[in-house]
Amino acid sequence: NHTYIQSDTAMASIPSVVLKVKDFFISTSYMTSPTYTFSTYTDTIQIGGTPYTLKSETSATRKELDVNMGYYVAPSLAFTLGYKTVDQNYHIRNSGTGLITTVSDSTTTYKGPTIGVTGSATVGGGFGIYGNAAYGLLETSYTGVTRTDDATYVSTEVGLAYRPADWINLTLGYKNQTIDTDEGDAVTYDVNPVTDTTKGFLLGANFIF
Predict the structure, then answer these.
(1) pLDDT computed for residue 5 by the predictor
(2) Residues 18-29: what's their mean pLDDT?
(3) Alpha carbon 95 to chain centroid distance?
(4) Coil, helix or strand for 23?
(5) Residue 185: pLDDT band by 50, 70, 90 thresholds?
(6) How many angstroms separate the Cα of 152 from the Cα of each of 19, 110, 138?
(7) What string of DSSP letters covers 146-179?
(8) Are 132 and 164 in contact (CB under 8 A)?
(9) Is the CB of residue 117 less than 8 Å from the CB of residue 138?
(10) CA–CA distance, 78 with 22 (Å, rounded to integer)
């Protein structure tokens, strides 16, 4: 069985810094999100032969850190090596008529090396297009669990750029990021595929010094 749970839309800040020396550069970005909520999940459980409706309400916060080193093989094309960490903190409230309400907090952490490519092209009048893609092999760990699982990270982003002056570049893009984890069952040793997807529009202002 596969359960799909979607959260509401939340706005997150992603400050970033890039230091470029000749054809080499180092970049870092840090994303923090406000609290966002997932769709309420209900299930029927049996206790002593009596059915009860269990309601599960989940909210979460998310932090992501990306650090990359890159090299421009052409003026508008670069390849990167990096490291990524993601901390997703969950707050879960289980309740139901005739049931004891329980509240729990947990954290899922992803971390590992990444490789990527980034490119751009001008289209005239100060406008341009850009895109980037990244791939990584991450380790997944959980609060209170000694087991770790393997995960695959894939990210793509495309967008438009506008440079009204030499010192600023404005961007509007769309990003899709997935982390696919082969989650192992501690009892049966079965592998359950779990996908974490983050996607949405990005609005940015890059100040050039």
Answers:
(1) 77
(2) 97
(3) 29
(4) coil
(5) low
(6) 28, 10, 6
(7) EEEEEEEEEEEEEEEEEEEETTEEEEEEEEEEEE
(8) no
(9) no
(10) 12
Q: What is the pairing mode between strands 50-74 and 24-32?
A: antiparallel
Q: Quote the pLDDT of residue 192.
A: 81
Summarize pLDDT for 47-91 with one digit per residue, the tens. 999 999 999 999 999 999 999 999 999 999 999 999 999 999 999
Handedness of CA 79, 84, 88, 89 (dihedral sign): negative
Select from 157, 195, 197 the least CA-distant residue to 175: 157
Are the C-beta atoms of 28 and 68 separated by less than 8 Å? yes
* Contact assessment for residue 155 and residue 190, using Cβ atoms and an 8 Å cutoff: no
**Can you read off the two tokens belonging to residue 177?**
């990021």
The answer to whether 161 touches 170, Cβ cutoff 8 Å, is yes
Asked if 21 contacts 34 with a C-beta cutoff of 8 angstroms, the reply is no
Tell me the pTM. 0.89
Alpha carbons 14 and 194: distance in angstroms, whole number: 25
Sign (positive/negative) of CA torsion 10, 120, 78, 70? negative
Confidence of residue 193 (pLDDT cuts 50, 70, 90): confident
Distance between start and end Cα atoms, the chain: 52
The pLDDT of residue 191 is: 72
